[in-house]
Write a structure and sequence with these properties.
The protein is of the alpha/beta class. It has a domain of 179 residues: Alpha-Beta Barrel (TIM Barrel). It is built from 10 helices and 9 strands. Strands 1-2-4-5-6-7-8-9 form an 8-stranded parallel barrel, surrounded by 6 helices. The longest helix has 18 residues. It is globular, with a radius of gyration of 18 Å.
């Protein structure tokens, strides 16, 4: 089972920051999930919310700030503690710092159609330029956006982010020609996983922080989990394989919080 670091390594370092990605990368993490918004100057930046309020304690929409202004903010609030100030990075900064990644899930949040159009163009151009068709999946709960990605290039991998029971996630993802189904762990059932995999979709479940839940999801047949604590999670699975005498298939890592599990 593949392990993705959620927002870098949200439980170990400030979420969606360069410090967090580098920290996880240095510990062997090679698969990441992250959130993207568009800056005022038209660059994809890595942040979950539409505003900077929660993580920086400043105020305003991400779209009101340039990449330079976002980079010097202190994005250590409402997240894991960190000794040094770290700002909101460009996607390009993350890619430069972690060049040997195996796979990325780039989640695009809801925004105005005009801005989403620009962001869609930026991401399609990036994937085409580097030929990252196997290394990057663009995910979203916005079905219009996913259709726009496929309209621009049908070879680009897309994934539906699903957190509601209706409409049926597998049916909707299939209609959109999705390659990935990114499920909230609360929705995940064995029949749902089986139906998705029958249609050729990779099933990735978020956000899973308890080993007990991970093992149950593994039994249900999921392909990957997204966790705030990827390094400790990977250590657990690596050690299990060592005990079993099986070869390691190390993909990604993070730290493990035995008490927490949630979106």
């Amino acid at each position: 089972m593949i392990i993705y670091g959620h927002r870098g390594a949200k439980g170990e370092a400030p979420e969606n920051t360069l410090a967090g990605f580098v920290h996880a990368y240095r510990h062997g993490i090679r698969c990441f999930e992250m959130d993207l918004q568009l800056s005022k100057d038209g660059e994809p930046v890595v942040i979950h919310d539409l505003t900077v309020d929660r993580t920086t304690r400043q105020s305003g929409k991400v779209s009101a700030y340039t990449t330079k202004q976002l980079a010097v903010m202190d994005a250590r609030h409402d997240t894991a503690p960190w000794p040094n100030q770290t700002g909101i990075p460009r996607l390009a900064d993350m890619l430069e710092a972690c060049p040997d990644f195996h796979h990325l899930q780039l989640e695009v949040k809801a925004d105005g159609r005009q801005r989403l159009n620009v962001l869609c163009n930026r991401l399609v151009e990036l994937i085409q330029r580097h030929h990252w068709f196997e290394r990057v999946t663009i995910t979203s709960s916005d079905t219009w956006f996913l259709q726009e990605v496929k309209r621009r290039d049908r070879h680009i991998s897309i994934g539906l982010v699903a957190e509601k029971r209706f409409p049926n996630a597998v049916t909707l993802a299939s209609r959109l020609n999705c390659d990935y189904l990114c499920l909230s762990w609360k929705l995940c059932t064995a029949p749902l996983v089986s139906a998705a995999r029958t249609r050729g979709m990779h099933v990735s479940v978020w956000t899973v922080n308890r080993i007990h839940d991970m093992l149950q999801l593994e039994e249900k047949g999921v392909d990957s989990i997204i966790t705030d604590f990827p390094t400790s999670t990977q250590i657990y699975f690596d050690n299990r394989l060592k005990v079993a005498g099986a070869p390691l298939n190390r993909i990604s890592t993070g730290q493990f919080d035995p008490e927490a599990s949630g979106a």
